[in-house]
Automatic annotation (TrEMBL):
<dbReference type="InterPro" id="IPR008979">
    <property type="entry name" value="Galactose-bd-like_sf"/>
</dbReference>
<dbReference type="InterPro" id="IPR013736">
    <property type="entry name" value="Xaa-Pro_dipept_C"/>
</dbReference>
<dbReference type="InterPro" id="IPR000383">
    <property type="entry name" value="Xaa-Pro-like_dom"/>
</dbReference>
<feature type="compositionally biased region" description="Gly residues">
    <location>
        <begin position="238"/>
        <end position="249"/>
    </location>
</feature>
<keyword id="KW-0547">Nucleotide-binding</keyword>
<keyword id="KW-0812">Transmembrane</keyword>
<dbReference type="InterPro" id="IPR027417">
    <property type="entry name" value="P-loop_NTPase"/>
</dbReference>
<feature type="domain" description="ABC transporter">
    <location>
        <begin position="634"/>
        <end position="862"/>
    </location>
</feature>
<keyword id="KW-1133">Transmembrane helix</keyword>
<keyword id="KW-0378">Hydrolase</keyword>
<dbReference type="InterPro" id="IPR003439">
    <property type="entry name" value="ABC_transporter-like_ATP-bd"/>
</dbReference>
<feature type="transmembrane region" description="Helical">
    <location>
        <begin position="12"/>
        <end position="32"/>
    </location>
</feature>
<dbReference type="InterPro" id="IPR029058">
    <property type="entry name" value="AB_hydrolase_fold"/>
</dbReference>
<keyword id="KW-0813">Transport</keyword>
<feature type="region of interest" description="Disordered">
    <location>
        <begin position="217"/>
        <end position="270"/>
    </location>
</feature>
<dbReference type="InterPro" id="IPR017871">
    <property type="entry name" value="ABC_transporter-like_CS"/>
</dbReference>
<keyword id="KW-0472">Membrane</keyword>
Length: 930
């Protein structure tokens, strides 16, 4: 039997083990996924004609697919899709429900996919009437269980736009037997114009999805709640994907209609795509004025479920996402309250997802299907007991937050009071409403997860924010619902638009904005600067605020996601009384043991472990410290940066910077200086070679970069804030403690004096440059890197900048300056590196480089006679007189011979030596001296 060779080195054994783990993990994942594959269900495609409008002879064609279970007759499910999508986006969910025993009818709503017509946003006369016609169709199908003539046993479900359709048709058609709306709205006006403040980011995303839709579109925008694949959270209650797949078995098209029909109605003009003119006009009004007229408010009300919830008597399951800045938890609570008041039976589930956090995962989708089966067949027991809601933790496994399910007896909150500290504060609305606070990006807030709000998206500009903070909590407070408070507001304008946020503050002062939720408030202010008290109900959240954490309420004047006033104004804001937070005590419930999922997770973790092992080896090699260089600020070795197309910006560059040096990086335009500095700062990755800072190899995001202060990409100060505030805001954005900023020392070196307290818009260009240098000096980094720091400065300002750099170097630190001003480099720097066409052409002390040319200088008693004498020698050129000095390029003639010739001519030579001028040496080195 042949002997199998085994790896001998430790590295080879680790890599072999990693490969084995990856193979085993892949096999496990394949086993799990293959076990879930199911045969496709039978389908029938049909195009159904419905009236284009009430009483109209014109027709709209609806593209439909009927999914048939193995046993019929069976209850039916009308499955609606999300906005911007079509029937194909819910195909996987339709197959899941069909395998559960339902007849499922999917369709593309008018204006989407292959259906004709225009988008009216679930208008009762159009989309809702279409749904009733689809129920008529189900009443003609022998596969559907019937409760009577033209009365099929039917439930309606869908997400977002489709969820609102479920509510609207249940309020209009008494044949509907149960509904399960998911992540949807109650009132479009409150969703898009909350408290009278236009939610422009989400509205623009919704409108663009409808305006750009075209015939034959499929999939959709995951931010809008449809079932297209999306990056999101696959947890107990959320995730993407679904069982089923593959092709479908087409049993035939109903009534001989073709499988697809092209749109037969032209798009609305004016860039409105397939929206109706009425919807387009309302959006244009909102987008241009930032406010809704009574006509638009009446339209939004007619298109909203709250116009019909008083008619809904059927069992209703409301599934709402806790991570949803489009349709928040308040929308589900409003639907539940109104339906309950009308006598309907309502149950709710809140899950860790939403438009910003992912669709319901397979387990939650299965629970929705089980609930519909119970309501439509009365078989078994109700799978939804009490009020279950997800509590999302902060620990992540493979990027996914941990989630536990808490079941409360009902959805009635138990309020708790928290005392917040903070005096009355003045906040400003900046001219033009910019810069604006950033709390999130619609559809992308899932990226932020539980990260610190000052990291990925969020920032509250200083001067625009009032903060009120609690003491550290003695025990965990599980907030579940909408906190409330009272504010006292006065100001210089007739009304104030404010944005109120609930922050979770960790012991190290990191801020987290749960679910990126913001509540806008429009406050009418009395004339004469009087104050008014206003109650504020914040956005609903589910957030466990841990022991030792603090709660902070922030009130800002701007938010990038909303239309805000552009006129400058100031307001005084204070908190009245305590903050009330809702809690819903309950008990944790288990989710069983999904063996397949656990095996899949185990396989994934094993694969991740293998990748981590291999990555760790690479990182150790990439970021390993060279012990011999730990005291050397900078070593560049063989650095190369090449771009596609044959351009090589930097070629085999090597040099070294020692502690205490001020090194000038010189070169003509295009020499590769800025590219080198950007590689040094980790902004771009070298093609070859390496950079080491204090022995650590530089890569994007390398920790050693925190030891470098830089001014490479240009300054970006906020003009309406003071220089000091700009610096503090920049430092706080790095996440480092304020006491480590060494602000006073940086300011002393920069020499701005009292001007640091003035607004930056009053600064001269030189002061702005010095402020930029002070920003780079914050924390007194050991290596300071500056790209053209004297750009745009006049001679006195350049002199001041030279003194700034000298003072910084005098602290024992190292400075690297890229500049094209040779005279300044000569006077400021101790060493110089000259680059040309991406390559190094010279490096050394400034004096040595400047003296490397062939020119000589003579101090004489008769400059005219000396110049005439030197011009008589062959090869001597560039003879010029500067006072008692005569300069000449001797072209290889020994300087002693030139002195002897001058003496023979009767000229007294007091001094002779090389002409030390960096400019001449530079031009000779780069080959541009003519």
């Amino acid at each position: 039997m042949p002997r199998i060779p085994l790896p001998h080195t430790r590295r080879a054994r680790v890599l072999t083990l990693a490969a084995v783990v990856v193979v085993l993990a892949a096999a496990g994942l394949f086993w799990v996924s293959s076990g879930r594959q199911s045969a496709p269900v039978a389908t029938q495609d049909a195009v159904l004609d419905v009236p284009a409008a009430p009483g109209s002879a014109a027709r709209v064609h609806l593209d439909t697919t009927l999914y048939l279970p193995s046993r019929t007759p069976a209850p039916a499910i009308l499955l609606a899709h999300g906005f911007g999508a079509d029937k194909t986006s819910v195909a996987d969910q339709a197959q899941e429900l069909t395998r559960s025993g339902f007849v499922v009818l999917t369709y593309s709503a008018r204006g989407f996919g292959h259906s004709s017509g225009q988008i009216s946003l679930n208008d009762p006369d159009f989309e809702v009437a279409d749904a009733s016609r689809l129920i008529d169709y189900l009443g003609t199908r022998p596969e559907v269980r019937q409760d009577g003539p033209d009365d099929p046993r039917v439930g309606v479900t869908g997400a977002s736009y489709g969820g609102a359709l479920a509510l609207m048709v249940a309020g209009a058609d008494r044949r509907v037997d149960a509904i399960a709306p998911v992540i949807t709205y109650n009132d479009l006006a409150q969703s898009l114009v909350p408290n009278g403040v236009f939610k422009r980011n989400w509205a623009a995303l919704l409108f663009s999805a409808g305006a750009s839709v075209s015939a034959g579109s499929s999939g959709g925008n995951p931010a809008l709640g449809n079932d297209a694949p999306e990056p999101g959270q696959e947890t107990t209650g959320s995730g993407s994907g679904g069982a089923g797949g593959g092709g479908s078995s087409t049993a035939g098209a109903a009534a001989g209609a073709p499988a697809q029909a092209p749109p037969d109605q032209p798009a609305a003009g004016g860039g409105c795509g397939r929206f109706t003119a009425e919807i387009c006009q309302a959006y244009v009004e909102l987008a241009t004025t930032g406010a809704a007229s009574p006509r638009t408010l009446a339209l939004l009300h007619r298109l909203s479920p709250d116009s019909v919830t008083g008619n809904i008597k059927v069992p209703t399951l409301l599934v709402q996402g806790e991570n949803d800045t489009l349709f928040g938890l308040d929308q589900a609570e409003a639907n539940a309250r109104q339906i309950s008041a009308a006598g309907g039976r309502v149950q709710q589930i809140w899950y860790a997802g939403g438009h910003d956090g992912g669709k319901p995962g397979p387990q939650l989708r299965g629970k929705i299907g089980d609930w519909l089966r119970y309501q439509l067949t009365a078989e078994g027991t109700d799978p939804v007991s009490g009020f279950p809601y997800d509590v999302q933790g902060t620990l992540r496994a493979s990027g996914t937050p941990s989630v536990r399910v808490v079941e409360a007896s009902d959805a009635t909150p138990k309020p708790e009071s928290l005392l917040l500290a903070g005096n009355e504060q003045t906040i400003m609305n900046p001219p033009g409403g910019v810069p604006a606070a950033v709390s999130g990006l619609p559809g992308l807030n899932w990226l932020a997860g539980s990260s610190r709000v000052t990291g990925l998206f969020g920032v509250d500009p200083p001067g625009q924010t009032a903060r009120f903070t609690s003491a550290p909590l003695g025990s965990q407070v599980l907030v579940a619902g909408a906190p409330s408070l009272r504010l006292r507001v006065s100001g210089s304008a007739p009304e104030a638009v404010l944005f109120v946020k609930f922050y979770d503050v960790s012991p190290d002062r990191n801020l987290s904005l749960p679910a990126n939720q913001v509540m806008p408030v429009r406050v009418a202010l009395p004339p004469g600067g009087g104050a008014v008290e206003v109650p504020v109900t914040l956005a609903g959240i589910v957030r466990p605020v841990e022991s030792g954490h603090m709660v902070q309420i922030a009130v800002t004047t701007t938010d990038q996601g909303y239309a805000t006033p552009t006129a400058p104004a100031s307001y005084r804001v204070s908190l009245v009384g305590d903050l009330t937070v809702p809690t819903m005590p309950g008990h944790a419930v288990g989710n069983g043991w999904p063996v397949g999922d656990l095996l899949g997770i185990a396989g994934f973790l094993a694969a991740a472990l293998a990748v981590a092992v291999a990555g760790g080896i690479r990182r150790r090699r990439a970021h390993g410290v060279d012990p011999a260089l730990t005291e050397v600020p900078l070593v560049i070795d063989g650095l190369t940066k090449a771009y596609p197309g044959g351009l090589t910006a930097v070629k085999q560059l090597s040099f070294r910077v020692e502690p205490g040096q001020v090194l000038g990086l010189l070169g003509p335009n295009g020499a590769g200086k800025t590219t080198t500095l950007r590689m040094l700062m980790g902004l771009i990755t070298p093609t070859a070679g390496e950079i080491r800072v204090f022995g650590h190899r530089v890569r994007p995001g390398a920790p050693v970069l925190s030891r470098i202060g830089s001014f490479v990409e240009g300054s970006g100060f906020l003009p309406h804030l003071s220089g000091e505030t700009n610096l503090l805001m920049y430092w706080e954005a790095t996440g480092r403690p304020r006491e480590k900023a060494r602000l006073a020392e940086a300011l002393e070196i920069a020499g701005l004096g009292d001007a640091i307290h003035r607004k930056v818009r009053t600064y001269s260009q030189g002061m702005r440059q010095r402020l930029a240098i002070a920003q780079a000096m914050l924390g007194l980094p050991e290596l300071l890197v500056l790209d053209e720091p004297t750009n745009g400065l006049d001679p006195p300002q350049i002199h001041q900048m030279r003194e700034v750099l000298r003072r910084y170097a005098a602290t024992g630190r190292t400075v690297l300056v890229s500049s094209h001003l040779l005279a300044e480099v000569e006077q400021t720097c101790t060493h110089v590196v000259v680059m040309h066409r991406g390559a190094l052409v010279a490096a050394g002390e400034v004096a040595d480089i400047a003296a490397a040319g062939g020119e000589a200088t003579f101090r004489v008693d008769s400059p005219g006679t000396a110049a005439d004498t030197l011009r008589t020698f062959t090869g001597v050129s560039n003879v010029d007189i500067e006072g008692p000095l005569v300069h000449a390029d001797l072209d290889g003639m020994p300087r002693a011979d030139a002195v002897a010739a001058l003496v023979r001519a009767g000229v007294a030579v007091e001094q002779a030596g090389p002409r030390r001028r960096l400019e001449d040496a530079f031009l000779r080195l780069v080959g541009e001296d003519g």
